[in-house]
Amino acid sequence: MTRASPSAAPVRFPSLDGLRAVSILFVIAHHLMGAAGTPASIGAVAHALALGTLGVRIFFVISGFLITSLLLGERTNTGAISLARFYVRRTMRIFPPFYAYVAAIALLELGGIIATNPGDYLHAATYTMNYHNDSAGWYLGHAWSLSIEEQFYLLWPALLLAAGPRRAPWVLVGTTVIVPLIRAGATLELIPGFSDSGQSFATVADWLAGGALLALWRGTLHANGRYSRLMAHPLTPLVLIAILFAGWTAFGHWRLSNVTSSVAMIAAVLLLDAVVTHPAKGIARALNTKTLMFIGRISYSLYLWQQLFCNRSASAWPSRFPVNVALTFACAILSYYLIEKPAHAAGRRLSNAI
Description:
With 354 residues, this protein is mainly alpha-helical. It contains 15 helices and no strands. Helix 8 runs parallel beside helix 11. The longest helix has 45 residues, at 143-187. The protein starts with 15 loop residues before the first helix and ends with a helix. The model is unreliable at 1-9 (pLDDT under 50).
C-alpha cells in the first residue's frame, strides 16, 4: 500500500484572501494616521476603531484557521503530519520576503536615510520582537506580530501531532479562557512582567486559538442544522461585524475592551466561517472580487513594506499620502512576484521531496 502523495494541491478557501485584504487595509489606514497629506477622515476612523491592531488580530484568526486546516488536510491525505515538511513550507513562505525587507532596512540605514534602535535587528532576525517591543524602533517594530505567528508555528503543530485532533482542542479551549484573564490582569497591573500593550504571545494567543478551534470543530458545527442555517442567513455576517466592533471597542471604554475583545474574537471566528462557507452571499461576495483577492495575496509583502513608507513621524516625500501608499504597493508587488511567490513554490517542491 503506497502512501498518499504530499504534493496534493494546497488547501484554499474562498473569501480568505478578501479577509486578508481587509486586514492589511486596516493596518495601512492606521499607520497613515497623522502622515502628511492623509485625509482627516481616514485618520479619524482608524483611531476611533484602532483598526491597525484589529487588522493584526484578524490575521491571527486566519492563521490559526489556515495552518490547522493545512495540518489536518495533510493528515487526511497521508495519514500523518510531517513536522519537517511543515517547517520547510513555512520557512520558504515566510523567511525570504522578511529577510529581504530587513536587508533593505539595513542598507537604508547604512546610507544614513533611516535609523533603527539598538537590538532591533537581533530581535527581528530571531523573531523575538514581541519581547523587545517597548524599545523597538518604527521600521522593524512591526515584526512583533510576525514573531507571535512564528512562536505559534513552533508550538501548535507539535502539540496537535502529540495530542491528536480529539485532545488538542481542549488546549485551545483552555487558551481562550486563560488569555483573557491574563489580559485583564495586565490591564489592572496585577501580573508582574505583563503590560496591556497586546503585543505579547500570552495576551493575544486566544485569537490564534480561536481560528485553530474553528478548523478542528468546523465539521461538527456544520453537522448541526441550526448552526448551518444561521451561517447561511444573509444578515449573519452583518450582525457578526457589529458584534466584532462592539467587543473590540467596548464602545470607547478601551481598558474594558481588553476583556470584551474575547467577544470580538468569537465574532471574528464565526464571521470567517460564514464568509468561507457561503462565499457568494452578501458581503462575502465582495471579499471574492478580483481586486480584494489580489490585495489579499500580496498582503504579507504589503505588511512588510508599509512600515517603511507609512511612518507618520517622517517628513520626506516618500512618507506623504498618497505617494506612500503607491510606493508600498509597488514594493509589495515586486516582493511578491520576485521573492515571495518563487520561494513559496520552491518550498512546496522541497516539502514534496521529503
